[in-house]
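Try this one yourself first.
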């Protein structure tokens, strides 16, 4: 177990640092009076049993985990609105302290399960006791509704060990569609509020 601790230590460091950095955006938006595209940020190092499971499932040799398992360090960024997702992706692409190595867009094209999220794999340098080590981390960017769905689907998958009964699967797909409509409805509401605010500001400006 001790060896896992040593192997995973830089990943834990990367998760901790990336959480602080991405949470920082929220505060920076707040002080400048702007709406933050980030609602909240979570992160985790993949638990050892999940690492072993996935390595087996994908036939990844354990000595190649650092290059072939991209989500040992995982960060999740939750947004209020679908539009915010690409704003967050833009912020990440523009950072100079990491390199984007891959992007997977499960929003334009959702997964068969109904899963939606935008995944960015980044290479992130960690300063370790043996010098700099560049590690891979996966950042998942999604709305609150996408997160709600994914969290529940993930725990059901865990409960049924990946064999969700067909009727439950069908319900989950309907739930994913409902989450999609909720996101659309919320975007529409935001748009209408924004237009109303613009009209109000314009009216006041005309009075001056
Ligand atoms: P955990 O427990 O979250 O760590 P693959 O695993 O083959 O689908 P790949 O190539 O490893 O995909 O990477 P990808 O596509 O970026 O997806 C990996 C992660 O995305 C998963 O990690 C989940 O966190 C999330 N994800 C992908 N598809 C689904 C889905 O259908 N439902 C839910 N709830 N989450 C999904 P892990 O390792 O599977 O699990």
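Now uncover the answer:
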């Amino acid at each position: 177990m001790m060896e896992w601790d040593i192997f995973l230590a830089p990943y834990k460091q990367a998760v901790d640092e990336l959480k602080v950095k991405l949470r920082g955006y929220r505060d920076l938006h707040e002080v400048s009076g702007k709406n933050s595209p980030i609602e909240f940020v979570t992160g985790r190092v993949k638990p050892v049993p999940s690492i072993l499971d996935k390595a087996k499932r994908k036939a990844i040799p354990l000595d190649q985990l650092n290059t072939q398992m991209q989500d040992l360090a995982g960060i999740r960024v939750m947004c209020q609105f679908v539009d915010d997702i690409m704003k967050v992706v833009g912020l990440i692409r523009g950072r100079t302290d990491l390199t984007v190595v891959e992007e997977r867009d499960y929003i334009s094209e959702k997964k068969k399960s109904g899963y939606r999220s935008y995944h960015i794999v980044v290479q992130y340098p960690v300063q370790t006791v043996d010098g700099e080590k560049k590690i891979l981390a996966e950042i998942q960017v999604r709305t609150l509704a996408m997160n709600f769905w994914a969290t529940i689907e993930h725990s059901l998958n865990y409960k049924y060990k990946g064999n969700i009964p067909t009727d439950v699967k069908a319900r989950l797909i309907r739930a994913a569609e409902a989450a999609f409509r909720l996101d659309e409805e919320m975007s529409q509401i935001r748009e209408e509020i924004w237009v109303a605010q613009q009209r109000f500001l314009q009216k006041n400006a005309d009075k001056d």
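Discussion: The chain has a mean pLDDT of 94. The chain has one domain: 2-207.
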